[in-house]
Amino acid sequence: MPHPPSKTPRVESGGAGVPLRVVHLNSLLNGGGTDDQCVKLAHGLCQLGQQVWLAGPDAREFSHVARSLEVPFHVTPPEGPAKVRFILSVAKLVRRERIQIVHGHHGRDLWPTVLAARLSGCRPKVVLTRHMAKSPSSWASRRFLLGQCDALIAVSHFVAKVLREGVYEPNSPEPERRARPPILGDYSKIHVIHGGINTDHFRPFDAAAQRREWGLGPDDFAFAVVGGYDRPRGKGQREFLQAAARVREQIPRARFLVVGRGNLKETLEADIVQLGLSGKAWLTPYCHDMPAAMNALDCLVHAQVGTEALGLVVCEAHACGKPVIASRLDGIPEAFAVGGLGLLVEPESVPELARAFVAWAERPRLNEQEKAALHQRVSSGFCLSLPARKTLELYRALLATR
User: Fold this and answer.
1) What is this structure's pTM?
2) Cβ-contact 23, 94 below 8 angstroms
3) Cα–Cα dist 327/312, whole Å
4) Per-residue pLDDT tens over the stretch 27-86
5) HSE-up of 121 (CA within 13 Å, CB side)?
6) What is the DSSP string of 101-155?
7) What contacts 24+ positions apart, CB below 8 Å, involve 214-217?
8) How far is residue 87's CA from residue 65's CA, in Å, rounded to a whole number?
9) 348 in helix, strand or coil?
């Protein structure tokens, strides 16, 4: 376990060059994009010379990741009723270490972050990040939360739009997209800071071994959906397979892979059989090496049907020199715009998705120089150091207002 930084006198000004004392709260750490971005941000701030703790439960997937990155880790106890034990544990850490910034991430941690900061008695600045393209679920949060924090980070301009203006799609087949009302308060507190990806790992390289492991031949053109497939609809995997069935004869060398895990596994396997895609489409074993996965496929398909705050998987594919076919949905166009290789399609339109398959299977793959240029574009807009630097700038600006 990494040792926490030694205590130093509290700095009120947050002046440039002086390390800040920051704690990130995360009561889950069991996987998913929010946990990934939370841990990466904490690590990025450590690399920038800040004194950072991550507070959360031990023995979770991302508590292990945090330890492997040597991010100082504060183990929180079982939450208890109304998360009282979790809140009190963090408040004690804030008081003991004279924390200047308390930063919460999950929706379930927004009010615990505020309460831990208040109960500490140290008056740290409170920063919250909204990682979802949804409004806070409760009326109280929409009415009062913005007034109780010093800054609210939106991970995309679309998320900021939801928070400031609300987004309404009353005819959407997805209930979560029909009404996303705005929050109330001082909108100057809302700041857009995109997440980042590790462009040292997500880069073009030969992944022939991964292709062989997946049963792909050198002449196969592999379309793939990458991500979890949990009920009710996953990330559009069923629409992906329906579109594949429409073009399986037009593109004989096309293969359609579902990369991920989830409780729709049996449903997707049944779809493959019923749609006549046996031998053309399959679910891969769970893949832990995502850079290799991205380099093994020929075109990423991100056919999201629910909400999507940003869609960093699009950036990961582009960083590896791969085209992307993605839903024109929520924050996805922001992620797509930096690389720009591929096509945005109408969400849930199986015919449009099928036409995109045909169009991109017929295009030649990028050469090495073109892949390198695409990687550079993504790195300039979404490398891991960018969100850490921008968040640190925000922290310092907040502390300068004391």
Assistant:
1) 0.93
2) yes
3) 13
4) 999 988 999 999 999 999 999 999 999 999 999 999 999 999 999 999 999 999 999 999
5) 4
6) EEEE-SGGGHHHHHHHHHHHTS--EEEEEE-SSS--SSHHHHHHHHHH-SEEEES
7) 214/257, 214/284, 214/296, 215/282, 216/255, 216/296
8) 23
9) coil
